[in-house]
Amino acid sequence: MNMVYGWFAGIAEQTLAASMVILAVLFIQYVLRRFINARVRYLLWLLVIARLLLPAVPDSPVSMLHILGNSKHLLTTILDKGPDIGASQGEYQELPPGGGDKVTYPANNTALNVQGQTDTARQEDGAAAVNRSSTQAAGYPLWMKIGTVIWLLGAAFMLLNGLLYIRRMHRERRRLRRVSAPEILKVVLATRRQFGIRRAIPIYTGGSANNPYLSGLMRPWIFVPEQALRELDASRLRHILAHELAHCKRQDMLWNLLGSLAATIHWFNPLMWLAIRRMKIDREVACDAYVLEVLGEEEAIDYGLTLVEFLKRFSRVRERRGHLYFSNPQQRQQIRRRISMIQSFKKGSYRISAAAVILVALLSIVTLTGASREPVKSAATGTKANPAGTLAESVPGEERAEPATEQGETLVPLTSIDEQQTEYAIRHNLLVPMNVEIEQDGYQVTVTGFMADKNQLILFYTAKVDGGRSLFSSDPRFVECIITDGITGKVINGRTHALVSSSSPEPHIKDAVARLKFATPLTDLPSKIKVEFHLRTLAANESNMQESPALQTTFDVRANYWKQETHTITSPETLNVAGHKIRVKLQLTPLTTIATFYSDEPLFKNKEFIKSFHEKYGSPFLWWSKTGTGDYRQQPGTSSITFTDYEMKMFTESYYLLDTLQSLRLDFMKSPAKPAGIKDLEHTYQMTFDVPGQDQS
Q1: Pairwise CA distance, residues 395 & 526, whole Å
Q2: What is this structure's pTM?
């Protein structure tokens, strides 16, 4: 159901944007009613249909959605006021170097030394896995789940009703008789040639309907009442056929179908129904204008008389959807508009002027695009984008230029990332610089940038507090973050503590980094990410810590940002531990390497099995990478290990996949009883993984 909830969230956003387009079209039609012809009025409605049906649109600095304060997502604003769903979903804890006494990391921060401390780590990570599962299941707000169910029921009813109608029309057509009278077919052929229609379009009669109409998308056909065929002269019959053939030539059946599809999806939007009604009226008027453009201005009076005559003869007509009628007396506004246009018609008025083309083009730019380039501002959290920032908070459509390093300039490493890793992130456009401040009640967080792949989000920020309090950073959880999808409100991660560079209470923590592993790899890639910070502070003469209010900000992530190279590699080699075969696979993304040791048996929480594993192989410890013709190079990176019954996962922050990687090597090591440092560790085993250039998962 999570995918369906995401669909509904996207459709709700879509219908909000389309509602603004509908209001814009109505306004333009009213203001320019004396200057735009019937054809242009109808073309404007096609923009509405497109906005209702397009699943995604490009961002633009001139999009009309900036009226919503750049958030083209009203859902984001609503969800900002929702309950703190992260706090009740269970905590997820990363295991940083020196971050706690439950798991010990080696001095070079490259991997987790599990030996001798496995039991505690298994218990902690087992609980974390359960909490992550519950977070994923309960990620969507209740109101969205209820709304999704209601929307699905309505859409299913509309779809079923439409399918039954199509079936009923097929049955009705089989009861009609095809017209074969030579004098009528002669009129049909002559009218077809006037409209440049080469394909044969059959004429049917009979049945109970008493108004001509066009039906059929792929194989169009025209119905004419039997009484009309008997009583009307060739001139009147030609007017009827001309109107229906004009619908066919203009592809109105296709747009009618797309309008029905939009109504099925957005049935809950009253403005959509108003737009469909107005579009039908404008379609008939535009069709009449096309008929008179083809037949000639001199036919206008006779064509109008034919329409009036039908109104007199057929005063009880029940309109059926899916058909394009010659006249419908129940639509009085439509009839008035059509007669008024016929009376004032002048040759050439159907044509589209250059000014009309410019109008439609400009309106397309502002309606068929999303908002960008303006900073997001949240009244609840005081979020604002600093104009001095390299990239404003909401610039999803802006390309990130690759920063150039001046000759002789020293590359300054990012916080907690060495120079080699910094250069990798910049070279491959993984780093998105920002300068977004969040202030509330004396607390302030400034987000200076982020990096992400499908497995983790890395935030760079500073934090400070006023009022004589200090950020209690010796507590590894002095700052906690909750990550949610900025559109749907789905929780990506519950409360997760972040890494900082300071280790004592300070009012201002500079250059902090939050490495936030996602509970599960992202499948629904968000176009907006909402981050909620919780800071813990301590006053000078107090012993109890105080938590800040939720400091929230939402920033955009471009769709191309997620188009990242990934690999899944299964090693042909197996590890043999006490008669049990252990298989190994790698999942590589630009910032992450996940090595999974797995078995069909529930082994990894068995103490005896883990003991045997360490006695034979030691612990997975160091990653080495090889690119081109070079040698293997040791790769630093923070790692953690988690356990379930059937697998052991080694999660490593890595920076080498995009550098034409050829192979990886994982070294296993054993530690003596009292190691003095890394030099005392014993290399026990190596596994090599070739990275095929074409096997991208």
Answers
A1: 15
A2: 0.53
